[in-house]
Amino acid sequence: MARERTVVKGIVLRAVDTKESDKILTVLTPGGKLPVIAKGARSRKSRVTACTQLLAYSELTLSESRGWQYLSEGSSIELFEGARRDIALLSLASYFAELTEAAALEDVESGAMLSLLLNALYALGELKKDPALVKAAFELKLMSLIGFEPLADACAYCGTPEPEAPVLDVREGVICCGKCGRGDRGLSMPLSGAALAAMRRILYGDVKRLYSFSLAEGDLKRLEDAAEAYVHAMLERGFRTLDFYKGLAGQEASPPHTGPEKG
Question: Does residue 254 carry a pLDDT above 60?
Fold first, then answer.
């Protein structure tokens, strides 16, 4: 009996070598995260090698057997060569893939998440956007898509729409004034007025213009540190690919602040 075939578009979030020439893929599709077995993908004669590599966005023909999806055919749509040619950009793109895999679920609609990842990779490799800006925007928007959107419209304690010395409470997921609720807060990351405005733009603005802004170096650093700390707090885990990327960039993890900034 012939196997029923389905055709999907998706991007490879993870590829694991298995047996002599096979791969087990984790693919993000509009319908959710999907494990796929690609038999013979590492063979020299394979026609699907290109579309089974990490970050390959392709049209995939799948057939199901005993509860597993097998890759029958594949045609690459975008390989994001611009990001692949730079080791730092490739490591950051790999972090995006690992983070997306942690956030995505099987059989849950993921069209917005897929678009977010594709646009982030395009912004890195083709538009040459500032990697720090793309990273912060991607992290915050991804958290928003999976239900962890921080409340950034006003101080969570006093209600002022323009918090004084604003901070992001990464455990509670709220913005507040540096002096508000000091005894009740968890870990907090200092922002600036410009960094807070950028965060609001990311969370509430047009997703098509997600990366169409710029920040001064100090403001961008605060936004990036806050976004990264927020991801760690919400998902309660670290990421190997992020450690590698930061190692290439000569960065060290910035510990979250526990009180209002001084000075």
Answer: no
- Rounded CA separation 257/83 (Å): 33
End-to-end CA distance of the chain: 74
Model pLDDT for residues 52-96, shown as the tens digit of each residue: 999 999 999 999 988 889 999 999 999 999 999 999 999 999 999
The torsion of the CA quartet 108, 112, 117, 118, rounded to 10 degrees, works out to 120
Comparing CA positions, the residue from 252, 194, 256 lying closest to residue 226 is 256
- Contacts for 100 with CB less than 8 Å, ≥ 6 apart: 13, 28, 113, 117, 142
Output the pLDDT for position 20. 85
pTM of the model: 0.91
Spatial distance between the Cα atoms of 247 and 228, rounded to a whole number of angstroms: 15
Burial 210-222 (b: 16+ CB within 10 A, else e): bbeeebeeebbbb
Give the rounded percent of residues in the chain with a pLDDT score beyond 90.
Answer: 83
